[in-house]
Amino acid sequence: MPMSSRPWIPAACDAFAQSIAAATSAAPVAETDAELARLIAANRAIHERDCLNLNPATNVMNPRAEAAMAAGLGSRPSLGHPGDKYEMGLEAIERIEVIAAELASEVFGARFAEVRVASGALANLYVFMATCRPGDAIIAPPPAIGGHVTHHAAGAAGLYGVTTHAAPVDAAGYSVDPDALRLLARRVRPRLISIGGSLNLLPHPVREIRAIADEVGALVLFDAAHLSGPIAGGAWPDPLAEGAHVMTMSTYKSLGGPPAGLIVTNDAALAERLDAIAYPGLTANFDAGKTAALAITLLDWLAFGREYAAAMVATARALARELEGAGLPVFATARGATESHQFALRAAPLGGGQAASKRLRRANLLACGIGLPGAEVAGDLNGLRLGTPELVRWGMGPAEMPALARLIARALLGNEAPEEVAADVTAFRSRFDRLRFIRA
User: How confident is the model over 37-51, as pLDDT tens digits?
Assistant: First the structure.
């Protein structure tokens, strides 16, 4: 029986899903098995042969970390604390868990690390639960400066029942306005103030935010979903050292690890509450294969982190400069296009961020839209987000950015169809087939 229709999602999405479900339901087992194998191979070809990934929300793992996820670890339940697990036979897995936590503490300069979290969004939920009660107020960056949905009504914050107030925006700095934030915090008395988002161009005023939080009895959450790599490599200020009480992150973006989440803190009382939420609360059993993959990833950061983080930033600056020179509308802060591994284009002249992304996809260039301060684009996002984690991991650097910028400009501004650029993108991509900044 095909799965039921979902009329609450966009009609085109529902029709797409229904067509696949119906074909799967009608196919023999062997045929579906072959189709899954084909799709797995097709995905690897898209990301590792045909296309260039300009999306800063993704990366490629050390093959040894990827292999750890399929090494018979993830299917073993691991309930309880290391040293006293409920199930027997976990002598190896519990040591992996402790090693991963220790490495996370070392890499991020934190006293406590929670490695059992399944995703960055769930890491944020854990912090909301540890610091707030339903009905409490929090303050979080709005989408215009990259604020993520998990901090707002449609995401984990709203689902848990806290009320989110959008932080005032400093458009020139693409961050929050500390003076206006102080006034808002005094008025709404938040339990938590979060900072960080899906696009980060300049360092955020963490010290000022901590001072405001102290005035009103709030805690500070730094969402490092996109900044975990630059922070780990010292290319971005350390939020915990600047006063954040807790930092959450995804581990698969600029960190280049498995699809999971991570929480680090120096606050023992907060760590105790987070531990109880993880076990016996929400996590209970977790994927130890991801934990092993995270540990391998963190070892790469101990070995090569400073070089990798610096290369991401230098390459992003070079690409932004070349795109501006090619006539593309690079979004600029008061201090330039970026001081991180990410930057953005103003997308209104390009028809909107997602429209531009779809045009780039036809040219084998992968990106996505983002929110920027300023006039909105009806039915779309007003920014196009670009980043360099995967480009650099495959061996590209500032020297390759003039050629890449020409390809992007041809796809977005040229008279030729994007499909005519695609073959040249793939040919350019073929020059880079060895991963950098990983231990063999």
Answer: 999 999 999 999 999
